[in-house]
């Protein structure tokens, strides 16, 4: 069973170089937060992470890819842009090794 | 005597290389002839007539060609629901290209060959090395030095001689990718670098080939199928429009990789290929493979974290990105831009090349360090200096700082060296950025910046040598400390004799080529 998220928090998962940079594979943060503000929030916690990691990452919300750029594949009005209590965010850098 | 022996060795190696080249050509010729023979032998005696109703509009179609030996070989998978003889024949008529005969390509190739894929191509310009063998399990100790494609096909032919194996013993480039991909139905990206990832994705989309791409690093992996054989499918650039920053691009030799973790991803690639061929592939009476109409599939990205409590996660990928450089309605990447060679993937990915950022007088070769420093000076640690501080360089003491991470340092290190992980230097640099907020929880004893400043302050007159694995990070470390010294001098209002930081004590050097170079000076030092 995955670790239970404390009340009023959301779960964030870090993969590959994101987890290497931060030194963790997961943690929880207070909810709610706008997805657009997520990168700046992480930058405040982990200086340098935007330029070194986040700018090339894919982001998922409850296992669904979300586009944080202005021009994206999703209709902004219909796709949720707020991370709520109990949600799970994934930070997925591209992995090239093999 | 020694010289004539060296000459003989070189001569033999040259002769062997030439003979191996001839052998490869002969094997390729043999494969071509066998494939022609198979086509002609379609109605040979051991073909079992198909007992199912295979009429089309009332006319009998050509009996399928599956020999008695093939029934025995593939029987266990043919009896799976939905598989049967038609499924096996789909595999037999399919052509799969595996780009990269490494950690991903090896397990993928083995399972695809074992399953009876009719034509398997392998692309790789590398040779087998000892450090490959913990994960590239198709190769063997007696194949070290052999071309990987040759090593791979020799194993695969022994496993299953039925498929046609096509060797492409060279690296994929923008100018050859489209030609290579043209003759195949499915492409497997088993490479290990972002430049090849983007190239393969671009070429597969432009050729309209199904692409199965996977990757692995440390104990993590990713997998997705990009179905460019159908319309309106997202591409690699839709998911990852920007390449990773070059300092995050680490090879397996730099970051480490767990053999079975990459093996899992390669095996899953084989499953994906077989699944798609089985479920959506078909073949015409002439034996040509083709894809049936596009199914309503939701693109997925599989994430694997081997050492986590929940190792597998499937995420649902986007549809096509409206501004995608490759697959949007207004792409900037076209067949012509690829074929003309104007696409520069290394510039796009910001490839990290060996750096050379220090002036010559700040560097020392491994040999000179051994001959003039280690054999003529006293190696100290930080604790030694604190107990009996020296004020002059005339006692010729030095400290050797190894900037690799602690797990590397614990594996092997030069006797007397002190570990100063590069990650500590990076944390200190981040803290110095005026835009970063101060961490209120940082205590002086854990603050990385203060620790490093202390290093300069406590032993100002001791010669400091920096070493790392390959000679890149040590240059960055030297550069960092030189900048700290310059900043210290700028802040000092006057020279303070007791504060060594104010003096010009550029007694900081980088050992060129790092421990790799050191292992040539000291052959007992392990290379890894």
Automatic annotation (TrEMBL), chain A:
GO MF annotation: an example: nucleotide binding
Record has Hydrolase as a keyword: no
Glycyl adenylate: residues bearing it: 98
A GO biological-process term: Mo-molybdopterin cofactor biosynthetic process
Listed GO CC annotations: molybdopterin adenylyltransferase complex; molybdopterin synthase complex
Gene3D superfamilies reported for this sequence: 3.10.20.30
Modified residues (1-thioglycine): 98
Key words, A-Z: Cytoplasm, Molybdenum cofactor biosynthesis, Nucleotide-binding, Phosphoprotein
UniProt-listed InterPro entries: Beta-grasp_dom_sf (IPR012675), MOCS2A (IPR044672), MOCS2A_euk (IPR028887), Mopterin_synth/thiamin_S_b (IPR016155), ThiS/MoaD-like (IPR003749)
PTM notes: C-terminal thiocarboxylation occurs in 2 steps, it is first acyl-adenylated (-COAMP) via the hesA/moeB/thiF part of UBA4, then thiocarboxylated (-COSH) via the rhodanese domain of UBA4.
Main subcellular location of this protein, as a coarse class: cytoplasm
Keyword Phosphoprotein applies: yes
Chain segments annotated as transmembrane: none
Family annotation (SUPFAM superfamilies): MoaD/ThiS
Pathway the protein takes part in: Cofactor biosynthesis; molybdopterin biosynthesis
Compartments where located: Cytoplasm
Pfam family membership, one: ThiS
Entry's family note: Belongs to the MoaD family. MOCS2A subfamily.
Quaternary structure and partners: Heterotetramer; composed of 2 small (MOCS2A) and 2 large (MOCS2B) subunits.
Function as written in the Swiss-Prot or TrEMBL entry: Acts as a sulfur carrier required for molybdopterin biosynthesis. Component of the molybdopterin synthase complex that catalyzes the conversion of precursor Z into molybdopterin by mediating the incorporation of 2 sulfur atoms into precursor Z to generate a dithiolene group. In the complex, serves as sulfur donor by being thiocarboxylated (-COSH) at its C-terminus by UBA4. After interaction with MOCS2B, the sulfur is then transferred to precursor Z to form molybdopterin.
Annotated protein name in UniProt: Molybdopterin synthase sulfur carrier subunit
Species per Swiss-Prot/TrEMBL record: Heterodermia speciosa
TrEMBL record, chain B:
GO biological process, one term: Mo-molybdopterin cofactor biosynthetic process
Chief location of this protein within or outside the cell: cytoplasm
Cofactor note: Binds 1 zinc ion per subunit.
Residues given in the record as Zn(2+) binding sites: 235, 238, 324, 327
Residues engaged in binding ATP: 103, 124, 131-135, 148, 192-193
Subcellular locations according to the entry: Cytoplasm, Cytosol
Family: In the N-terminal section; belongs to the HesA/MoeB/ThiF family. UBA4 subfamily.
Name this polypeptide is given: Adenylyltransferase and sulfurtransferase uba4
Species per Swiss-Prot/TrEMBL record: Heterodermia speciosa
């Amino acid at each position: 069973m995955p670790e239970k998220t404390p009340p009023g928090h959301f779960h964030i998962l870090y993969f590959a170089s994101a987890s290497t940079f931060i030194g963790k594979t997961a943690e929880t943060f207070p909810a709610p937060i706008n997805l657009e503000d997520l990168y700046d929030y992480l930058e405040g916690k982990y200086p340098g992470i935007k330029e070194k990691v986040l700018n090339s990452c894919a982001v998922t919300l409850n296992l669904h890819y979300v586009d944080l750029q202005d021009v994206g594949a999703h209709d902004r009005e219909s796709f949720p842009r707020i991370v709520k209590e109990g949600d799970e965010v994934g930070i997925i850098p591209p992995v090239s090794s093999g | 005597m020694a010289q004539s022996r060296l000459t003989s060795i070189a001569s033999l190696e040259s002769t062997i290389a030439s003979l191996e080249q001839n052998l490869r050509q002969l094997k390729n010729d043999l494969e071509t002839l066998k494939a022609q023979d198979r086509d002609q032998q379609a109605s040979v005696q051991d073909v079992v007539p198909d007992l199912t109703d295979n009429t089309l509009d009332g006319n009998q179609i050509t009996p399928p060609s599956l020999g008695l030996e093939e029934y025995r070989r593939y029987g266990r998978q043919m009896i799976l629901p939905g598989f049967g003889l038609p499924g096996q024949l789909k595999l037999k008529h399919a052509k799969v290209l595996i780009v990269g005969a490494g950690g991903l390509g090896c397990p993928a190739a083995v399972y695809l060959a074992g399953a009876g894929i009719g034509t398997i191509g392998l692309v790789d310009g590398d040779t087998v090395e000892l450090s490959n063998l913990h994960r590239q399990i198709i190769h063997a100790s007696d194949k070290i030095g052999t071309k990987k494609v040759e090593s791979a096909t020799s194993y695969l032919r022994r496993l299953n001689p039925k498929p046609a194996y096509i060797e492409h013993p060279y690296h994929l480039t923008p100018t050859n990718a489209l030609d290579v991909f043209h003759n195949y139905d499915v492409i497997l990206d088993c490479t290990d670098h972002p430049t090849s990832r983007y190239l393969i994705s671009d070429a597969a989309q432009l050729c309209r080939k199904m692409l199965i791409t996977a990757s692995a690093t440390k104990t993590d992996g990713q997998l997705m199928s990009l179905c460019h054989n159908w319309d309106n499918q997202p591409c690699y650039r839709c998911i990852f429009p920007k390449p990773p920053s070059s300092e995050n691009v680490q090879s397996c030799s730099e970051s480490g990789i767990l053999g079975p973790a990459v093996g899992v991803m390669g095996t899953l690639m084989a499953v994906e290929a077989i699944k798609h061929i089985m479920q959506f592939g078909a073949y015409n009476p002439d034996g040509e493979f083709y894809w049936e109409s596009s199914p309503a599939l939701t693109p997925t990205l599989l994430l694997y974290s081997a050492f986590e409590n929940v190792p597998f996660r499937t995420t649902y990928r986007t549809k096509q990105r409206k501004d995608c450089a490759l697959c949007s309605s207004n792409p900037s990447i076209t067949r012509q831009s690829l074929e003309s060679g104007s696409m520069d993937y290394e510039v796009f990915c910001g490839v990290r090349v060996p750096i050379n950022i220090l002036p010559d007088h700040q560097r020392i070769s491994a040999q000179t360090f051994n001959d003039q420093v280690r054999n003529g000076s006293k190696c100290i640690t930080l604790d030694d200096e604190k107990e009996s501080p020296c004020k002059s360089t005339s006692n010729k003491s030095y400290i050797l700082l190894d900037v690799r991470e602690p797990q590397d340092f614990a594996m092997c290190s030069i006797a007397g060296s002190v570990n100063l992980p590069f990650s500590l230097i990076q944390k200190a640099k981040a803290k110095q950025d005026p835009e970063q907020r101060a961490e209120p929880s940082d205590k002086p004893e854990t603050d990385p910046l203060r620790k490093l400043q202390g290093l300069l302050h406590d032993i100002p007159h001791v010669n400091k040598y920096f070493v790392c694995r390959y000679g890149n990070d040590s240059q960055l470390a030297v550069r960092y400390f030189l900048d700290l010294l310059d900043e210290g001098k700028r802040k000092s209002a006057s020279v303070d004799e007791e504060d060594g930081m104010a003096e010009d004590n550029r007694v900081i050097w980088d050992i060129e080529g790092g421990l790799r170079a050191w292992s040539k000076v000291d052959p007992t030092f392990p290379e890894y």
